[in-house]
Every structure is written in structure tokens, then in C-alpha cells.
Amino acid sequence: MDRAEIDRRIRTLIEPFNKNGVTITDDTTFQGDLEFDSLTVMDFVAAIEDEFDIIISMNQQAEIETYGQLVDAVKKLVDAE
Amino acid sequence: MSEGISQPDQPVTREARAKGDLFAKFDELIQMREGLLASGVEDPFNLVMEKVLSPTRAICNGRETILLGTYNYMGMTFDPDVIEAGKQALEEFGSGTTGSRVLNGTYQGHKECEDALKEFYGMDHAMVFSTGYQANLGIISTIAGKGDYVVLDIDSHASIYDGCSMGRAEIVPFRHNDIEALEKRLKRIPADAGKLVVLEGVYSMLGDVAPLKEMVRISKEAGAMVLVDEAHSMGFIGEHGRGVAEDQGVLDDVDFVIGTFSKSVGTVGGFCVSNHPDFEIMRLVCRPYVFTASLPPSVVATAATSIRKLMHGSNKRAHLWENSKRLHSGLKDLGFQLGTDEPQSAIVAVIMPDLTRGAQMWEALLKEGLYVNLARPPATPANMTLLRCSLCAEHSEEEVSTILGMFERAGKAVGII
To answer: Which domain does B367 fall in, by range?
Structure first.
């Protein structure tokens, strides 16, 4: 799966969690820009995990601060499958 | 002496932080706390009990107070046999061991305490730690290392998360009590990776019980080892008081049970019981067991005596259930929002609309002469503010009625009901 396709799918998944309608770029941060709390993070991560049939452990989540980093991380996990 | 209940700490005007002050990371929390105190309520996290009269009564700020937030489920703290065992050990073995369990810190009493646990759970091995926190920290960090996966409920206790971090295992959380979410995650973990599933019998924030029957089965089918923390169920849930795993008939499939002496047992300490044939090696490799002093002789003596008495506590268990049911239905009838639809344990969590009103309600109850726990984010699930009530087998039927009257008056005064 190429990066553009992963990006497109994650953009669809993030919609219900993007309550303030923030414009999402690769530099958008989850905590600062999107104001995700821990519960939102869990639900959002679960949605991505189900979509791509992967696991993003909390250790990996801790390394992901921006939207771009998330897409890259998911691509890496999907490629490793 | 206390200044009285309605004279809270005054907020202080603070100066700018010195450059390099590592406390800057706490600024947000410091401001939140100061804001709460400035609103006039007493600091809910700074209560001092001046005298303790019984498992259910204490003098707090000069006022006789009913205790409804102590986790002292079975009321063993003032049991005459327990007290006598502690006194005797104190006199015969001294005030402390001054040493690690693996050096000079294992006395006869520590072995007797472990024997009592083995008998209580019907298991081959028991290991006593200095606190329940250390039991989770030690066992989880030692058995799940780098490259292993720990699958856990998102609402797990801090000691479980800290154990995962210390062992550097991959942490995979799933939605609270969601069987399907657990199953999906187990299937996605690489087949050859080590897997530990960590569950709790009773979750202490809402007092709800885990569906261990299904979760343990799914975990074993996926080839995972299973650890269940029964801190809030020991002595009370299950035919022999062994906990939720016993109650749901899956205790034989659980690899490790973690527990504590600081709730039903009525003292302090933690433990792990297991049937794993090589369990004893833990005593040499588990750092939170090795690198700390063992429990004082009086503590293990009180624990052992209490555990043995809990084996025959079925009447007390029945009364505790009655108390839990009475409080739960009473609060529900008054119009309070509760953590569970039905009483599932000895914890009844009352959901507050927000932290400010939660703190007001907490203070109003204290003025009525009732102590409960105020629980707030981040310790609570879904950022809830909770008034957590934990019942005791020593609460009388009359006391539960008194408690309900206090809740009614306080709830109306604060405008929650």
C-alpha cells in the first residue's frame, strides 16, 4: 500500500475525532492542534488498528506526535506485514 | 491541631520560576490545585485522621466521621486476634527486619504468611512483597521483558503500567472490559512473541467486575500467560474469597494472581501466588523483591492471622454484600448517577458532574460526618470525577441508612440531586 492511500484512509478515520474541524497537514499535532485526550487517542488508534489489521503499541504511540509521523508509522507497520 | 473544616489553605502568589527549575512541568497541576482551593473548598487530598476508633469510624478535623472510603472491606484492622498476633511478633521479633528477603529479611513470620496465602488460594507458590504496588511492578517487569507483549485493559492500575514500562515490554491496551477488543489484539501479535495478558478482577474506579471467564479463555487459546490482580476482591468475592477468577470458575487457568494486604487483609504488603513449577526463581530475579527491605515482623504476623480468619469469613461476606446492595439501591433511588447499574463489588462509585462540584460534594459530606474518596482525572476513566464509596463488613445496616441520609442532604445542598 502506498503512502498516499494510507494517508487517504487515515484522513477518513480521523474525521469523527476532529471535533473542531482543524485543517490537517503532516505537521498537525494530536495533543496540541487536535486536543486529543487519552480516551480519544485510544479510540482513534483502535480505529486505525482495525482498518489496517495492525498493532500500534503504546510504546510506538509515544513516538508519534504529528499526523505525518502517524502515516509514516502505519506505512512501516503495513509494509512489515 | 486542625483549624477546622472551612478554613482552606490560602492560595499563594507565586514568583516566576528560576531558570532550569525542573518543577516547571508541574505548573498546570499546581494551578489546577490552587484554583480548586481558591474556590473555598478544603483540600480533599490532605485529610488527616486524628484518631481511628474502629474500621468504620475516625475523628477527622475534630469530628466523628463514618469511614466509607478505606477499602477496609472485611474490617480486619481492629480484629482482636490480628492485633494480638502483631503485638506478640513485635515483642518477640522486634520492630523491623532491616533487610531484604534474600539476605537477612526472611523471618519465620514471612514463611508463615506465605504458607497462609498458599492455603488460602490452594496454590503451590506464594511470594510476599513489601507493598501491592511492588508486587505488580516486580512480577510484570520481570516476566515481560523487551520484545514481549503485555496486553492490558486501558483502565489498569498505575502499578501495572509502571511494571510494563520498567520491563520495557510492548504495551498493548484494549478498551475497558471489551472481550472482542482483547481478542483482536491477541490475534495481531506475532505468533512467536511472548504474551502476557493483565486483567483485574474488580476495577477500583467504578467497582465493576471483569468478564474473566471469556477473557481468560481467549488469552489461553492465544497462547498467552494470564495475570489477574485481585486486590479489590480478595476475601469477599468467590466461594472461598479468592476473587473474581474463582467466582467465574477460571482460577485454575490463571498463571499469576496478584493481591494486596492493604484492603481486606487490613495491613500493608503485596503478594503473588502461582502454580508455575519454576516460580521460586522469581525470588532471585525480581528486583522490587530483592532490592528493598522486607515487611516488619508485626505486619506479616497480622497479615497471616487475618488471611487465615478470612478463610472462614462467609458470614461477614454475606453482610458486606447486603451493605453494598443497600447503599447502591439507596443512592440510585435518591437520583445519583452511579458507576454500575447493579452492585458488582464492595465499591459504589458516584459520578459527579465536574471536579468543582465533586469537591464541594466531598466537603459537604465531610461536614455531615462522612468520608469518601474523591477521585479525579487522570486516575479516573473518561476524565470523570467520582466519589468512591467502599463498604466494610463492619458497617451496620443502621449506618448505611445514616450514610444515605448524609448523601441526600449534601447532594441537595450542592445541587447535584
So the answer is: 40-74+314-414
